[in-house]
Amino acid sequence: MYIRTIVEDTLDENFPFLKNEHGLSLYIKYNDKNILFDAGPSDVLVSNSEKLNINLKDVDYLILSHGHFDHGGGIIPFLHVNNKAKIFIQRNSFKNYYFKNGQDIEYIGLDSEILEKYSDRIVFTGETVYNITNDIILVPNIIIEKKITYNNEAMLINEKSNVFRQDYFEHEQAMIIKSSNKFYLFSGCSHKGIINIGNSIKKIFNITHIDYVIGGLHLVDDPISKTHIKTSELDEVAKYLKYNITQTYSCHCTGDPAYAYLKNTLHDRIKYLRTGSEINI
Q1: Which of 8, 13, 66, 172 has the fewest CB atoms within 10 Å distance of its CB?
Q2: What residue numbers bound the domain in which 173 lies?
Q3: Which CATH number belongs to the domain containing residue 216 in this structure?
Q4: 3-state helix vs strand vs coil in the chain, percent to 5
């Protein structure tokens, strides 16, 4: 499996000609399939892909991890280039999602034009496991057994005029790729918590460990100063990754401070994916 980070918050120093921005998009080459996991926040997805010689016209599937703009803002630019890929979106993804920063509340949901103009390209997933193929599987029904971290409290949903409530991320879905008896777990932000996601995956597939975790772990506390969540919670995450995951590739909302902390425990068993980074696993 080949994975290339097309868009991420930071830039791999080997690729100074690319543009980084807050968001995530991963290109995955698996057997004869070309998969885009998230689309970043803008048309940077397209320009970076061109510079990396990735032909977006060849993408077969676009998987949206959840309904936030930093993962789905590049969908429309992608659709201007690609005329064949189906887009797999959890059916709650087009609700009104907001981020509260102090007294300010900012819309962070998807562009309604995606639904209005491109509904024929969308496949909506529900609350149950969805098989794209026998070995590419979407898992939206993550059970929250461990309370999600407090840094999610700023994520809100507006279901009726001027009435906001906590977002519990019904719109979030993970992707599993099964290959040669190995399990690859892709998660955009892990808002529901990587421990909850990992445990749900293990139960669903009746496995004792997961070989690879790739994606954001949402361990940033303050998105402005980029500080990490409480060290007691980081210790829980580090312990879980150590004993349940063979290799972790983190990025995006994990944040560099949390990554550095986890690195002290996991050493070479955790690595960071930045804009331009590529791996073969």
Answers
A1: 13
A2: 2-280
A3: 3.60.15.10
A4: 25, 35, 40
Cβ-Cβ contacts under 8 Å for 135 (sequence gap 6 or more):
177, 178, 179
Q: Edge-to-edge, what's the strand order for the sheet holding 25-30?
A: 122-125, 86-90, 61-63, 33-37, 25-30, 2-7, 278-280
Q: Report the number of distinct structural domains present in the chain.
A: 1
Span 195-221, pLDDT tens digits: 999 999 999 999 999 999 999 999 998
Residues in the chain: 281
Report the distance separating Cα 150 and Cα 245, nearest Å: 24
Cβ-Cβ contacts under 8 Å for 227 (sequence gap 6 or more): 220, 221, 257
pLDDT at position 186: 98
Tokens representing residue 237 in the block: 């995450």
In the chain, what is the straight-line distance between the N-terminal and C-terminal CA atoms, in Å? 5
- CB contact at 8 A, 99 and 154: yes
pTM of the entire predicted model? 0.97
Take residue 63 and report the two structure tokens written for it. 């998987």
- CA dist 22 and 18 (Å) reads 14
Angle between helices 194-205 and 231-244 (to 10 degrees): 20
Buried-exposed string 247-267: b where 16+ CB fall within 10 A, e elsewhere: bbbbbbbbbbbbbebbbeebe
Beta bridge partners of 204: none
Where do we find the tokens 């980070």? 5
Helix, strand, or coil here: 157? strand
Rounded CA separation 122/205 (Å)? 26
